[in-house]
Write a structure and sequence with these properties.
The complex is a heterodimer of chains A (567) and B (138). Chain A is α+β, with helices and mostly antiparallel strands and 567 residues long. Chain A has 20 helices and 25 strands. In chain A, the strands form 7 sheets. Chain A has a 7-stranded mixed beta sheet with strand order 12-17-18-14-15-16-13. Classes of the chains: A alpha+beta (567), B alpha+beta (138).
């Protein structure tokens, strides 16, 4: 228990039941006005706690003037006026004194007191020698000391005070905040349209984001205002003007022009938005689960399983067609850990080309989980969809090294997508690449505009229909009608952004598809539309006519094999 | 017409002494049985049935209480064996009220003090019809 009996601000319940009063806001208003600079919410809340304690002390001093502070150990005379700290500073007059009657306490007196304002008579101990809490409290009051200081109270109950205070400050138009700092609207130096125009011109001419201090140095602010107030006013005004965007961190704001931010950073490209994501629980065979792990598609991540993932120092992934087209990297939780995150929804970063040693300006959009800026790098290095890319942490959190593993130029038969009579068809063509890649994911496209138009046509089609359309087209190119599961995933992502899990779930549940080993699947048109409904059926595939069928155990996605075995 | 609300978790309970009178039962017998061995021996030697002054430990306000009860509050209720794990729940509640001067408490507050059974169960025990040891809503 904390607490000096009688001082309400020393009691836990006082702060647990804390609510902001108008007097608190008036005090903060006066404090910020006299101080002339912004403060953090923490500093404001501590002010409130200190002021509440001061107010109570002053109130106590006034009460004490009304009479003598009652202590059980003291002697009192009829006619004396007493103040009872334990009864919320109630005041009463001694009207009688009698001997106390209890052998356990020894000799003591009992005073009868007529309480104000209602006049009820209550009895209290006097000349009371046994230890009593009120005697100790009175000693502390006499010494002017508190058991718990305001700063200690703030450590204990600051969270409650902050929570209520921030709501009250937000509801009061006089208080304004930028980031974690709070100030008064009326105390801010005026930022004119002229100031903002100069700021725009400065950033435009620099061609890069500028810190507010650099902008401030060129502005003619009225003398007499504190630099912190000027900085706050500028940041606040820039944040309210759509021409400007803060792309820095909480410690180091950086102002940039919204029009200079690439469109693909302002708005997530539609091509990156998964139409189908893994939901968890999809039934997938063991081999396909391994492929999904290799593909590392952000759309296959179950957030509940990645929330506490430790940060990594490097991250290797196969480049997808949507990322190749947009010059982006969709970020899994592991990849995200390499990038800075902050208060702002967009951060400017540098990709450091490990081979060329040249920095590439890029952006990361943490909330949308993608990074942008590698389009030219993909192009100039001839990196196809399917190339293996590596990201590595550097000493600077805003610089991410990017590399690929070079290989001597080597010919490879790859799938070549083209439009023919309004349908997507595939052919096999020979291409040569100078990087490491996953050959099952290599996809080349003849006419990207036509492919985009075809993808638009397919918008209303279900994933199941798309798989049933693309699989036979791919199968035609193999003598045995084989299609590798990863190739199907790559082909679907030409026309629909989709995680591997929903596609692999289609392969697993549809009886017309059968695994025949090595990641390859075959198609039996006669079973089109027949679905397996249980994991046992999907493993056994009882409708299959294939002699070379591979039976593989099926698991619900998101549950580890160990968990499944224990079930 | 007086409408009596159904007791809930916040309803305050206490020992209703009028219940003891109506039942023709002597609460002092229970008080004597609840004394610690030392006080039992002392009381047996010099039985003291009068009222004495009781000083509230927080406010120092004086009230007149039965000397037997005062002895129980000042000594026995502060000893470790006053309420044990084996003390029945209703008796634990009764002893709690004796120790605190019969200041009304809700089942939530009682649960915090005796740490036996959830408040909902305590509420059911105290309101399911029969009155135990005079414990009733205030």
């Amino acid at each position: 228990m904390i607490g000096q009996r009688g001082l309400r601000t020393q009691r836990a319940e006082y702060w647990q039941e804390f609510a902001v009063h108008d007097e608190d806001l008036v005090h903060l208003y006066e404090w910020l006005t006299s101080d002339g600079q912004p403060h953090t919410l923490d500093e404001l809340a501590l002010q409130v706690v200190e002021q509440r304690c001061r107010d109570e002390e002053e109130s106590l001093a006034k009460e004490v003037e009304r009479g003598r502070i009652y202590q059980p150990e003291s002697e009192y005379q009829v006619g004396e006026t007493l103040v009872f700290t334990a009864l919320d500073y109630a005041v009463g007059e001694v009207i009688a004194v009698r001997p106390g009657d209890n052998p356990a306490y020894g000799d003591f007196s009992v005073i009868a007191v007529r309480m104000k304002p209602h006049g009820e008579v209550r009895e209290f101990a006097a000349n009371f020698k046994p230890p009593h809490a009120l005697n100790r409290a009175a000693e502390r009051q006499a010494a002017g000391s508190r058991e718990v200081s305001p700063s200690q109270l703030y450590q204990m109950y600051g969270e409650v005070v902050r929570g209520h205070l921030v709501k009250a400050l937000r509801a009061d138009p006089e208080f304004v905040h930028w980031d974690h700092m709070w100030f008064l609207r009326s105390a801010m130096p005026e930022v004119t349209i002229g100031h903002l125009n100069i700021a725009e011109a400065m950033i435009d001419m620099a061609g890069k984001p500028l810190p507010p201090q650099e902008i401030l140095a060129e502005l003619d602010f009225p003398a007499g205002t504190k630099p912190a107030a000027q900085l706050f006013a500028l940041n606040y005004a820039l944040s309210r003007d759509e021409r400007f965007t803060d792309i820095g961190t909480s410690d180091k704001p950086l102002w940039f022009l919204t029009r200079m931010i690439p469109q693909a950073v302002l708005l997530k490209p539609q091509r990156l938005v998964p139409v189908q994501r893994a939901m968890g629980g999809e039934l997938i065979n063991r081999e396909l689960l391994e492929f999904a792990a290799e593909l590392q598609d952000e759309a296959d991540e179950l957030l509940t399983l990645t929330a506490d993932m430790p940060p990594v120092d490097s991250y290797t992934f196969p480049l997808s067609y949507p990322d190749r087209r947009e010059g982006t990297i969709t970020l899994t939780a592991a990849a995200m850990s390499l990038f800075p995150t902050g208060r702002n929804s967009r951060l400017m970063i540098s990709f450091l080309d490990v081979r060329g040693k040249t920095p590439i300006r890029g952006w990361v959009v943490p909330d949308e989980r993608y990074a942008w800026g590698l389009g030219e790098w993909y192009e100039s290095n001839g990196l196809p969809a399917g190339a293996t890319i590596q990201l590595t942490r550097t000493g600077d959190p805003f610089t991410i090294a990017v590399s690929y593993e070079p290989r001597s130029r080597r010919g490879e038969w790859v799938y070549f997508a083209a439009m023919s009579n309004g349908n997507l068809t595939f052919s096999i063509q020979k291409r040569a690449y100078t990087c490491r890649y996953d050959r099952y994911l290599l996809m080349e496209v003849q006419d990207e505009a036509m492919l985009d138009a075809y993808a638009t046509q397919l918008r209303e089609k279900s994933l199941s229909e798309i798989v049933l359309t693309l699989f036979p087209e791919l199968a035609k190119l193999s003598g045995q009608g084989l299609v590798h599961a990863k190739t199907l995933y790559a082909a679907v992502n030409l026309v629909r952004r989709c995680g591997a899990i929903p596609i692999f779930a289609e392969l697993t549940r549809q009886a017309c598809f059968d695994p025949v080993g090595g990641g390859n699947w075959v198609y039996d048109e006669s079973l089109k539309g027949v679905l397996y409904t249980s994991a046992a059926e999907m493993s056994e595939r009882p409708r299959s006519r294939r002699q070379d069928l591979i039976r593989d155990q099926v698991y619900p996605y998101g549950m580890t094999i160990v968990q499944e075995a224990q079930k | 017409m007086t409408v009596r609300l159904k007791p809930d978790l916040n309803t305050k309970f206490h020992i209703d002494f009028s219940w003891w009178e109506k039942q023709n039962r002597d609460i002092r017998i229970y008080l004597r049985e609840s004394l610690c061995p030392d006080c039992k021996a002392a009381y047996a030697a010099t039985p003291d049935d009068r009222e004495v002054d009781w000083v509230d430990p927080e406010t120092a306000e004086v009230t007149r209480v039965d000397s037997l009860w005062q002895r129980l509050r000042a000594c026995c209720s502060l000893k470790p064996g006053y309420i044990t794990e084996n003390t029945p729940v209703i008796e634990s509640i009764f002893l709690t009220f004796l120790a605190n001067g019969n200041k009304p408490l809700s089942v939530v507050e009682l649960h915090k003090r005796i740490d036996k059974q959830p408040p909902e169960v305590l509420l059911r025990m105290l309101t399911r019809g029969q009155v135990y040891l005079g414990i009733r809503p205030v």
